Amino acid sequence: MARLAEIPQPPLPWLLGVARNLLRQQFGRARRQQRLADRIAALTSDADLQAWDAGEHVVERAAALDALGSLNEGDVEALTLVTWHGLSTVEAAEVVGCSPRAFTVRLHRARGRLADALRRFDDQSPAHSRAARAAAGQDGRAPLLRLSEGNGR
How high is the pLDDT of residue 3? Predict the structure, then answer.
């Protein structure tokens, strides 16, 4: 009840402001979800949809996580800043405290080490082989770890 005393009088303008902010947040969330769905649709072919096998994707995800876990902290940081957080190389360089050119080299080397790690898991499952080719951009699809590269953000 203490917070109730903080509501200004008359309450209508305050309530309208709260409702406006909530609607703006909901609209923004829906817009971000739609952009993500559009991006996924653009990267998905009809063959991907026909060949969808949940078990295979679980194995590929496990292989990617194992490979990522085998990398050093600097490589993981470089990869996640660009792919997970969606930063440009300039923004990511600022985060780690180096020049954009140095970060680009660091990211290139990290991607190579990730592809090597995925290839090491190749012996365990055919799905790992597909994950390694995707990470290196050698499977004819968009490279797994280059989705946000050059996005201008």
Answer: 79
